Amino acid sequence: MSARLPVDVITGFLGAGKTTLLRRLLARPELAGAAVLVNEFGEIGLDHLLLERIDGDVVLLKSGCVCCTVRGDLKAALEALLGRRARGEIAFDRVAIETTGLADPTPVFATIAADAALKHRLRMGAVVCVVDALNGAATLDAHDVSLRQAAAADRIVVSKTDLAPPEACSALAARLRALNPVAELLLLDAETPPPALWLTGAGEGPPSRWRADTPAAEPGHDARAFLLEAEAPLDWARFGLWLSMLLNAHGDDILRLKGVVAIEGVAGPVAIQGVQRVVHAPEHLEAWPDGDARTRLVVIARTIDPERVRRSFRAFVGRAGTNAAAASA
CobW C-terminal domain: from which residue to which, for each copy (predicted)? Predict the structure, then answer.
């Protein structure tokens, strides 16, 4: 297991129930060792008062949403927590960040992945997105940031299912599965205890989800999930160049990329995941959980023709040359 501490993120649009879920999660004894960062929009923060955190390890970021303009604030808060931990003032084994409902979670990824001091001490854990069963469908239609939140998630929680008609919950769940087939989906009411959503890493979901391929566009946003596959192991340098070129050209429209890659000369799979232009450090897994030693990458993207990306990837896999692969993208 990595010595770096996991940073888990709970996201979701305004009113989805993030703080309620966070409070319920932190009540679990397995998560008693979490330090919490609560990020709120506005000058006066109130939600952190509802968390009832023991030992006061709650840091309130008052700079507004977690976005590019406050990335330095997030970095400073993380460094302060790590400093206090190193001095023995507090003890924690993971960090939980609750973003504001208006925040794209991508800058959290970027802050950890790009900062030299943080990336050696922290790693991305799981991203949990809360979607309101009552208003989730309308929110996805009306607000692009809600689409980005759901697409970036490793686990999606449909909240308030006890308040919405069963058919509405089923329709929303089907829509979210189509939008993000690599995310675990949980329908949760106010009474059912939530599972320990952060006790497993973001790259540990069942590989069967990485087979999903849903070419139909997401209504109103032209977002879709599609699959890239390769039978033979890939050359790591060539793959890295292809991925860099793809993200450089289309990174803003690639909402999520996740899967396992077979690499020449490497016995086990390498887990790859990223959000927009940010890619996490690759993780070497001990074995292929399903025995299927093939490259499988799920891409969730907007405005990009999946066949163009597939053609680019096939050119790369077929070793037609990196220039041809880049031109196809």
Answer: 223-317
